[in-house]
Amino acid sequence: LALEQFDLVLSIEPEHADALAGRARAERLPEVLEHVQRAAELAESGQLAEAADAYRAALGIDAAWPAAQRGLATVERRIADARYEALMSRGMQALADERFDDADAAFRDALAMRPDSGGARDGIVQAEQGAKLNQIALAEARGLAFERRELWAEAIEQYLQALETDSTLAFARS
């Protein structure tokens, strides 16, 4: 129907720019619709990267097709959400495994994606606290080991390092 209508306009005014452009879009519409349909099916099945590619292919044919624009925006948002969730999960697992540097990196990447993320901020704090507690525990263990061997200067050095981290540590003060 669109082709017929554009042909009617062009029979009256063969150089009508809008009719020429509209006819060209209408001719490509079946291919655009095929890509959009395929993209929707891929997105439905969770194949988000492939769906984004199919939407981009549709937009490559007709950059103004609204369904392709909306579909691509939705899929890209879902991809970003999945990446954010993966980063948060990686950070939480790293915390559980006491890999505090890895946790901090994952949470910082998540925070870069979503600067307003309270969860990512909390994760960073937990990673920093975990690393701090590890340093304190290590300083205490080393200090005690040096004491047992009567290496007093080295023991004092460990305790001073622990006090730099937290001046209220009773074991280091005593």
Descriptive labels:
174 residues; mainly alpha; 84% helix; 0% strand; rod-shaped
Describe the structure.
The protein has 174 residues and is an all-alpha fold. Helix content is 84%, strand content 0%. It has 8 helices and no strands. α1 runs antiparallel to α2 and α4 runs parallel beside α6. The relative contact order is 0.06. The model has no long low-confidence stretch (mean pLDDT 91).
Structural class: mainly alpha
Strand runs, count: 0
Mean pLDDT across all residues, rounded? 91
Overall geometric form: rod-shaped
Largest sheet report: none
In what range is the share of β-strand residues?
Answer: under 5%
Poorly predicted regions: none
SSE order: HHHHHHHH
Helix content estimate:
over 70%
CA-based gyration radius: 31 Å
Number of DSSP helical runs: 8
Termini gap: 90 Å
Give a short overview.
The chain is mainly α. Helices cover 84% and strands 0% of the residues.
In terms of topology, how is this protein built?
Blueprint: H1 2-12, H2 17-44, H3 48-61, H4 66-96, H5 100-113, H6 118-148, H7 152-165, H8 170-173
Helix pairs in contact: 1-2, 2-3, 2-4, 3-4, 4-5, 4-6, 5-6, 6-7
